């Protein structure tokens, strides 16, 4: 080995050694960070989640079954699923359209549209629910017209649906926009050049490229739709058996000192969250290579 090659070898090895030093700077620091993270997860996530299931089954299977099959509880479950079944597909369609417009085109008002998409993140859910009351309530701006036409939005299912759509709207769009922007328009332009129609290009090229971001957005949107409390509490009126979703029903049961029943219904919400998490984890594990390739692309 010649001395002339030595500086180049040292220069080439320096970044690798620096990277190793950064990654393994101090095992004590690594263990401390991991320990703090695990402690936080145990105290604020795992223990409360475990306590929900423990309290739900504290009085036995029969009491748990009665709490779930009670008519008001069944009505709350049906209403929650109904609202999610409408709000999530609506936000998927509108979110895809908004993300496609923002990522693929330049137009006036683009920054304003992005600000509107982010609006539910910056406004308290309680305030957003109050806005619907001020607009559609009996004394609201559209209240007299609605009353004259025998229509009811606030303290009814339409108000709950509007509030849920509002608070869950950003999730799909916000997952898709950065991914679509990173992909650019080369694939779509190639497909159009080869003779594909715009709709075929969208369904055969654009959607497959962003399917994982879309899936994550749908998961987040569905979880928020089923668990939303603040906005729904304002517009629903909390009418048992009619306008109570599962989170509202849990609150009413707990306030009436029916702890076992409250935890039983809460365990269903927790179970839905766990199913969502497991489904996301399984798909990430099963299709890890495809997800990584999509993100690199």
Automatic annotation (TrEMBL):
It is a multi-pass membrane protein. SUPFAM superfamilies: MetI-like. InterPro entries: CysW_permease, MetI-like, MetI-like_sf, Sulph_transpt2. The keyword Transmembrane applies. It holds the Pfam family BPD_transp_1. Keywords: Membrane, Sulfate transport, Transmembrane, Transmembrane helix, Transport. Residues 77-280 form the ABC transmembrane type-1 domain. The chain crosses the membrane at residues 28-54, 74-100, 112-141, 153-173, 214-237, 257-279. It comes from the Bacteria. PROSITE patterns: ABC_TM1. It is found in: Cell membrane. Part of the ABC transporter complex CysAWTP (TC 3.A.1.6.1) involved in sulfate/thiosulfate import. Probably responsible for the translocation of the substrate across the membrane. The complex is composed of two ATP-binding proteins (CysA), two transmembrane proteins (CysT and CysW) and a solute-binding protein (CysP). This is Sulfate ABC transporter permease subunit CysW.
